[in-house]
Write a structure and sequence with these properties.
200 residues; mainly alpha; 8 helices
């Protein structure tokens, strides 16, 4: 029965997950980098596109049926893993395409450093969205997750003396700090995915 449930969920997932906003953000970012960017500003455009896609992916975690499915025999982590798998595959594939286009247009691109920001922003979006879902209990949290990502990204451009800056991938220690942020956000997402109905 469980395998049948999983198969049915996979079959209908594209219809129950809001793919519109992330798809538009991804297509827009790819078009800008491919056709509108100059070699000198490709890195900035990649960062802005990554922020937009990460913010939009929070919408993929919206679950209008969360309240109805709460007593389902399928545990919350199992149900949520499908949505997280969609986020991981979609963002990973899109970012690979972005880097392929960008590296074809410029030879000086900190691809690895920029990738750490994509990972961190996506993890922040997921953790923020799941935190709001846990507090609200209605399965709707995408907007809040997106706002958190946009705020984080904007703060990465601020440089205030005496105040720890939000890490930027272009800082010397930025990639390492972003990986720590991603790990912390990922751990938070795992904790927030525990099924309240099954905790003792």
């Amino acid at each position: 029965m469980r395998s049948r449930q999983l198969g049915a969920t996979v079959a209908v997932l594209p219809r129950i997950v809001g793919l519109g906003p992330p798809a538009w953000a991804a297509a827009g970012g790819l078009a800008v980098v491919a056709f509108a960017s100059r070699p000198g500003n490709i890195a900035l455009h990649l960062r802005v596109a990554a922020m937009a896609v990460a913010a939009a992916t929070a919408i993929l975690l919206d679950d209008d049926a969360a309240v109805t499915l709460a007593p389902s025999p399928t545990a919350l982590p199992v149900r949520r893993s499908f949505r997280l798998a969609v986020v991981t595959v979609a963002v990973g594939g899109w970012w690979a395409a972005m880097l392929a286009v960008a590296t074809a247009r410029t030879a000086h691109l900190p691809a690895a450093a920029l990738t750490t920001e994509v990972v961190a922003l996506t993890a922040i979006a997921v953790a923020a969205a799941l935190a709001v879902q846990r507090l609200a209990g209605d399965g709707r949290s995408g907007a809040t997750g997106g706002i958190v990502v946009v705020a984080w990204f904007a703060l990465s451009f601020l440089r205030i003396s005496g105040v720890p800056a939000v890490p930027s991938p272009l800082d010397p220690d930025g990639p390492a700090r972003l990986l720590l942020v991603a790990a912390a956000a990922g751990a938070a997402a795992l904790l927030l995915s525990r099924d309240p109905a099954r905790r003792r």
